[in-house]
């Protein structure tokens, strides 16, 4: 019988595979800067040349980006499958925001369900931290930071599902989702009671996930997005009434 020699994997390949897994799992996020080479080598318990070789391979794959004198980063556009021209089409199409809300019902409902089912104590701590960011910026009326925190809150929930496909689907939609949430808040937030209702809804979602109640978490997402849709429709009706009033006023004055 002929035996094939077992080939020992190169240390750099083992490091590379571990870092690829960290990117897939969301431990390393798009745009995140890696720790300094010495620190990273210590964490992996490997030599710096082996680490350097692994990083070079990941750069060649387009997963990492090295900046001269500025460190190494996870590629910022990783998973960004929606191009700017497509974003512009979505932004200017009147039905797009409702189609996206419908899609969010499906995707975020599943994410909330599995987050409540699978999230670890560390996951829940991360989701709560993003929720507290959201609350802080809300109280400060820091609109742009609040939009960013809103998106990060939903992405933290997606990460806690421990489903890599679901997480990266959400990340691929990050730019579109940011525009969508921003546009929604601009339309809804002039109404203070609507704004406070949205924050209460985020709190209910957090509570369901922390208590490990998947069906309640999924329902909290659906209730939240149904409220957003109704608020947008009401705002649209109010804008139409205002336009009619202005037209009547113009005709009377002339």
From TrEMBL:
SMART domains: FCD (SM00895), HTH_GNTR (SM00345). InterPro entries: GntR_C (IPR011711), TF_FadR/GntR_C (IPR008920), Tscrpt_reg_HTH_GntR (IPR000524), WH-like_DNA-bd_sf (IPR036388), WH_DNA-bd_sf (IPR036390). Pfam families: FCD, GntR. PROSITE patterns: HTH_GNTR. Keywords: DNA-binding, Pyruvate, Repressor, Transcription, Transcription regulation. One of its GO terms (molecular function) is DNA-binding transcription factor activity. Residues 9-77 form the HTH gntR-type domain. CDD domains: WHTH_GntR. It comes from the Bacteria. PANTHER family: PYRUVATE DEHYDROGENASE COMPLEX REPRESSOR, TRANSCRIPTIONAL REGULATOR, GNTR FAMILY. Transcriptional repressor for the pyruvate dehydrogenase complex genes aceEF and lpd. This is Pyruvate dehydrogenase complex repressor. It comes from Nitrincola tapanii.
